[in-house]
Amino acid sequence: MERFSRTEKLLGTEKLLRLQASSAVLFGAGAVGSFAAEALVRSGIGSLIIVDYDDISLSNINRQLFALESTLGQNKVDTAIARLLDINPKCRLTGVKQFADVNTIPEILKSPPDIVLDAIDTVDPKLELLTYCARSSIPVISSMGAARKTDPLAVRVDSLFKSAHCPLARLMRKYLRRRGIKSGITCVYSTEPPLPPRPGEDSDELSGTNHSTKIMGSLTTITGIFGLVLADTAMKIITGDY
Hints:
Layout: H1 5-11, H2 13-20, E1 23-27, H3 31-43, E2 47-51, H4 76-87, E3 92-96, H5 105-108, E4 115-118, H6 123-136, E5 140-143, E6 155-159, H7 167-178, E7 186-190, H8 220-239
Parallel strand pairs: 1-2, 1-4, 2-3, 4-5, 5-7
Antiparallel strand pairs: 6-7
C-alpha cells in the first residue's frame, strides 16, 4: 500500500479500498482525458477502460500528457496504457481503439462501470454518450469546453443544466432536453466566456461533429485543470463525498 500511502493518509483506508475496488470508463485520451486518466491511476483506481481512436500528432504536445516526441504517430490508447502501467502495474487497464457513437457505446458499457468520464471533444459522440448514460442510470461526469479559456479560477463543477457561459454546455442541454433528459449529468465547465477566435482558428466555438474537430486555441493549464477536476469529482462520487 506504500504506493498510495499519502492518499490513504488523507482519505482513510476505507475510501482508498473503495477506489481500488472501483471501475471507470474514460472516453477521450486527449487534452482533458490524459490528465484525468493519470490522476485516477495515481490515486489508486482499480479498473480503467480508456476509449479513443486517434493517434498522437505534433500539435498535441502543448496540452496532452501522452504526447511526447517519442510517441508521435502512436495510438493514444496504446501510449496511455504503457504510461499508466508504469505508474501502477496492478491497475486493470483496458484500451478500446474505437470511435464512440450510437453503435459502439452500448457495447463498451455493456458491463456498467461505477463511473463514466466524458472527455470527448466532438458534439455528436458526446451527445450519444450522455444520452446513453442518463437513460441507463450510469453515473457520468462530463467535461465541457476548455478551448479559448485562460482563467483557471473560473472552472466549476455542477449539474450540466445549471452551468453557464459555455457554448458547448448550452448545446448539450438543448439536444438532451429534446430527448427528454433534464437532469442527472454532472459537468466540469468554466464560467469564463470564450475568447474570440484568432486568425486561422475556426470561427465557431463549438466542437465539430462526427470524426471532425474544430481547430481552436487551448492551454495545458486549463485543459489540465479540467481533467484533474474531472478525475477529482469522479473519485468523490465513488467514495461518497460528492
